[in-house]
C-alpha cells in the first residue's frame, strides 16, 4: 500500500493530499529512511512522522483499503511520542 494512502486510511493524517504534502516535505520516515508519498509500506514497518514540534513513531500492524473511524487505531501501534526542537534533523 502507498504511504500516503495508509496515513489517510489510518487517520494519522486527515486527508490524502495533506499526507502527500507532508511526505514531500521530508517529514515522514519509513524504517529510518525518508519516504516519498508513493513509498510502499507493509505490516511491521515503523513510521516516524514530524508534526510541527512533535514527532510520533508508529508500527504498522495491518493494512486495509478502508476503515471506519473506530477501527482506524487498530492499523498501527504508537511506539513513542516526543517533543523535538523545530530545527531537529537527521533522524
Automatic annotation (TrEMBL):
<feature type="domain" description="RNA-binding S4">
    <location>
        <begin position="1"/>
        <end position="68"/>
    </location>
</feature>
<dbReference type="InterPro" id="IPR002942">
    <property type="entry name" value="S4_RNA-bd"/>
</dbReference>
<comment type="similarity">
    <text>Belongs to the RqcP family.</text>
</comment>
<dbReference type="InterPro" id="IPR036986">
    <property type="entry name" value="S4_RNA-bd_sf"/>
</dbReference>
<comment type="subunit">
    <text>Associates with stalled 50S ribosomal subunits. Binds to RqcH, 23S rRNA and the P-site tRNA. Does not require RqcH for association with 50S subunits.</text>
</comment>
<keyword id="KW-0648">Protein biosynthesis</keyword>
<dbReference type="GO" id="GO:0019843">
    <property type="term" value="F:rRNA binding"/>
</dbReference>
<dbReference type="GO" id="GO:0072344">
    <property type="term" value="P:rescue of stalled ribosome"/>
</dbReference>
<comment type="function">
    <text>Key component of the ribosome quality control system (RQC), a ribosome-associated complex that mediates the extraction of incompletely synthesized nascent chains from stalled ribosomes and their subsequent degradation. RqcH recruits Ala-charged tRNA, and with RqcP directs the elongation of stalled nascent chains on 50S ribosomal subunits, leading to non-templated C-terminal alanine extensions (Ala tail). The Ala tail promotes nascent chain degradation. RqcP is associated with the translocation-like movement of the peptidyl-tRNA from the A-site into the P-site.</text>
</comment>
<keyword id="KW-0699">rRNA-binding</keyword>
<dbReference type="GO" id="GO:0043023">
    <property type="term" value="F:ribosomal large subunit binding"/>
</dbReference>
<keyword id="KW-0694">RNA-binding</keyword>
<protein>
    <recommendedName>
        <fullName>RQC P-site tRNA stabilizing factor</fullName>
    </recommendedName>
</protein>
<dbReference type="InterPro" id="IPR025490">
    <property type="entry name" value="RqcP"/>
</dbReference>
<dbReference type="GO" id="GO:0000049">
    <property type="term" value="F:tRNA binding"/>
</dbReference>
<keyword id="KW-0820">tRNA-binding</keyword>
<dbReference type="Pfam" id="PF01479">
    <property type="entry name" value="S4"/>
</dbReference>
Amino acid at each position: 500500500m502507498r504511504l500516503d494512502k495508509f496515513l489517510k486510511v489510518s487517520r494519522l493524517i486527515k486527508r490524502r493530499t495533506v499526507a502527500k504534502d507532508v511526505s514531500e516535505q521530508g517529514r515522514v520516515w519509513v524504517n529510518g529512511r525518508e519516504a516519498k508519498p508513493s513509498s510502499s509500506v507493509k505490516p511491521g514497518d515503523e513510521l516516524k512522522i514530524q508534526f510541527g514540534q512533535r514527532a510520533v513513531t508508529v508500527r504498522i500492524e495491518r493494512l486495509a483499503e478502508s476503515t471506519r473511524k473506530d477501527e482506524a487505531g487498530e492499523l498501527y501501534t504508537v511506539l513513542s511520542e516526543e517533543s523535538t526542537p523545530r530545527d531537529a534533523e537527521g533522524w
